[in-house]
Design a protein that fits this description.
Elements (H helix, E strand, L loop, with lengths): L1 H27 L9 H8 L2 H23 L2 H22 L7 H18 L2
Length: 121
């Protein structure tokens, strides 16, 4: 069971890493028009951070399939998404320098309590 928890944690870390990479890639581009033009598509698909985000997210999906083969989704998904949300808040505040409001931190605390409750047997 410990291996499964570690895999779920890995999926959450990979998800956050993928999203942060995508965000960094989009931040490095000028504003993107609502209609995609050829130059816009080239800019998106040649941006190293965007490509890394897509690859990391796809690899995380692969690990998630392994998790689903080992445990119930009703146990794995709450843990994985809860960890994902809390990790994302931490990285957004301390790595991207985003201002995360107090209510989001309080929500994260509720999520952590929920993770503890749902992972107990």
């Amino acid at each position: 069971m410990l291996k499964t928890y570690l895999l779920i944690s890995l999926v959450s870390v990979m998800g956050v890493a993928g999203q942060i990479s995508l965000k960094m890639g989009m931040n490095s581009l000028q504003s993107i028009p609502m209609h995609f033009t050829y130059p816009t598509m080239i800019a998106l698909f040649t941006n190293v951070n965007i490509l890394a985000g897509v690859v990391i997210s796809a690899a995380g999906a692969g690990v998630w399939l392994l998790v689903l083969s080992r445990t119930d989704i009703s146990a794995a998904l709450p843990l994985g998404t809860g960890l994902y949300y809390v990790l994302l808040l931490l990285v957004a505040q301390f790595f991207l320098q985003e201002k995360v409001p107090l209510l989001r931190w309080l929500g994260a605390m509720v999520i952590l309590i929920g993770i503890v409750i749902t992972t107990r047997k």
